[in-house]
Each structure stands twice: as C-alpha cells, then as structure tokens.
Amino acid sequence: MPLWSHALGISGDIDENVRAELQKLALHQVEAGEVLFRPGDPARGFIVLLKGRIHVYLTGRNGRELLLYRVEPGESCLQTTLGLLGDAPYHGEGVAETDAEGYLIPPALFLRLMAQSEGFRSFVFRAFAHRLSDSLFVLEQVAFVKVEERLVRELLQRADAEGRVSATHQQLAVAIGSAREVVSRRLDALASAGLIALERGGLRLSDRARLAQRLAAARD
Fold this sequence. Notes:
about 220 residues, 3-stranded antiparallel β-sheet, Arc Repressor Mutant, subunit A, 2 domains
C-alpha cells in the first residue's frame, strides 16, 4: 500500500483509477517555520501529511495568538477541509512546526475523490469530526478552565523524559490562549512553590508528580 494510503488509513480495495491518480502527486517538503497559509488565502489543496507537524493559529484583533490545533501524520486540517468543501478562505495561519513532507491533493481532484471513493470520503469526514472535536475542546479550555490548570497541563504534555520543556513564555501563552505576562506570573509562582525551575530558553519540571496532583485536584 503506498505512503499516502498508510497516512490516510484508506483500505486497500479503493478504485484502482483513484489509486493511480494519487500516486502521480508530487511529494512536497517544507522547512520548520515556513508559513503554509494565512488568513484570507484560498485552500490550494488537501494536505496529506506524511512526516512532521503543522500548527494552526488564530489571531485576535488585539494581536494575541491562540494555537487552535496541531496536524500530525494521519490527521487533517480542519480549515483546509472547510475551505475545499465550502469554498471559504482560511481564517487562521498554518505554520510548519518541524520539517515536514507530504502530498497536496488539488481541489478538483479532492472533490472528485469525495464523490467517487468511499474510503477517501470516510477518512475525510472521520478526520473532520475528530478535528472539530479538538477545536471545541480548545474553546472549552479557554472559556471555562483556569489559566494555571491549562498551563500545568501544557507543561506536562511538553516535558521530555528528563522534565525539560523547550518553550518560551510566549509560546506557552499561545498554546493555552493566554497573555505572555499572565503566563510569566504563573510560571514564577510555580517556581516559587518548587514545582518547576526556570532556565534560559525553557524550564524544567522539578516535581512532575506534584504537578500532576495539582492538575488532578483542579479537575475535581
């Protein structure tokens, strides 16, 4: 089964003509930090990500950014799907978080596959529902969950095996939908409590277990 089929999770019994068309697509490679789309851009095609990670951000009128969702291999981009199905421009900005590679299915071919291939259509709608659920979760977090709880969860998710988190205060603020100044104050408080140690270019979790307990207590 070809790479794109593995990435999409499409069964091997799709129409051979569809398979042949997809195999003709050129592989695209982008470097970390490259902007893939901006607000107002039209969707240029359906992204089939094979390697790497893409972050999609929303920017408010006050200039504050919010990380809406991440796209990894086997996942779809909600705004791209909306753009292709509804002929709507992007409202957010997509940035390659790491070096990435994948295929770009042109709009006309995407719409034809949606009509002809049950396997492809099932993947698109399944991935769309999953991504919409992720976006609603982000909205719920920003609207109803306290900043410290969101911050602690993000730290625990980002920390490597040694407890190090390679992220600036601004990057953490974008990830949890808050302001850098607010995040800096919360991090200072966590450091004063002995839960983290602030380091240049990032931080280290001093007591992962207590942080996890703090998060669990906040949920109760």
